[in-house]
């Protein structure tokens, strides 16, 4: 569906160019749930904005290419595009729930108008009352009552606002939904409800969901494939079950090792330290400073992401 080839994207700052996505090659397949995991500051949100083709607020793509193919499941018609033109597909083929999106809703407009304004023409056929009823039915699936439509955002709880945003993103029946930490900061019950809705919608529409979460438990539960981001690089990508069962990169292993397990008596080992600065990243493997297995070569040469098993790639010299 979307292919990134050797993509470099980031932000110009007075000191340096911060390459938050640095030479990333990644394929997003049709009809899958792809997870993107990794610590904060590793470039997940920048990668999502690159997939969305949102080059605003100082984000620039300086190398590589992003191409997309969007196939309508009913007509079989395919539209091809590239990141610079994805904007034409927003809220039609591609929808996006940005991180920290609580503030995306307009505070001085009732929710119904905001939803209707966001819809493409094809969703607005029929009478206003019919459209309202369809929206009401759809929101009900998210546990949102009709009164939400006649409310201003500030009258809703954080969890409700977030559900409204996810609902708008899904209501347009896009081929691709990009959701960046859509449930972070919500309580566990609401979190679960939103994630289950996203999965249900993806199955029903047979579309693609790219989900960013720093919570590996979420990925384990719902994603088909997972990509692990570290310091602007994708260091491992593969089927989620394979990655959890046999992680190929020491960083992935450390993230999984830090997960709490049922019945586990000993404490899980967390990962010390922080990812390196992206303004001046170290030479060689970017994880070397924190890697218990790092050897001389790790600090000299940056390994490319290569397939080590069918569909399972890793950027580690030794595995
Ligand atoms: P993540 O989503 O994994 O936390 P981000 O993509 O948000 O990572 O950020 C990656 C890096 O890019 C960080 O070092 C962050 O400080 C930097 N960054 C993000 N947005 C901007 C911006 N608008 N201007 C400058 N640097 C930015
Ligand atoms: Mg982020």
TrEMBL record:
<keyword id="KW-0547">Nucleotide-binding</keyword>
<dbReference type="Pfam" id="PF00005">
    <property type="entry name" value="ABC_tran"/>
</dbReference>
<dbReference type="InterPro" id="IPR013563">
    <property type="entry name" value="Oligopep_ABC_C"/>
</dbReference>
<dbReference type="InterPro" id="IPR027417">
    <property type="entry name" value="P-loop_NTPase"/>
</dbReference>
<dbReference type="GO" id="GO:0016887">
    <property type="term" value="F:ATP hydrolysis activity"/>
</dbReference>
<dbReference type="GO" id="GO:0005886">
    <property type="term" value="C:plasma membrane"/>
</dbReference>
<dbReference type="GO" id="GO:0005524">
    <property type="term" value="F:ATP binding"/>
</dbReference>
<dbReference type="GO" id="GO:0015833">
    <property type="term" value="P:peptide transport"/>
</dbReference>
<dbReference type="InterPro" id="IPR003593">
    <property type="entry name" value="AAA+_ATPase"/>
</dbReference>
<keyword id="KW-0813">Transport</keyword>
<dbReference type="InterPro" id="IPR017871">
    <property type="entry name" value="ABC_transporter-like_CS"/>
</dbReference>
<dbReference type="Pfam" id="PF08352">
    <property type="entry name" value="oligo_HPY"/>
</dbReference>
<dbReference type="InterPro" id="IPR003439">
    <property type="entry name" value="ABC_transporter-like_ATP-bd"/>
</dbReference>
<keyword id="KW-0067">ATP-binding</keyword>
<feature type="domain" description="ABC transporter">
    <location>
        <begin position="2"/>
        <end position="256"/>
    </location>
</feature>
<protein>
    <submittedName>
        <fullName>ABC transporter ATP-binding protein</fullName>
    </submittedName>
</protein>
<comment type="similarity">
    <text>Belongs to the ABC transporter superfamily.</text>
</comment>
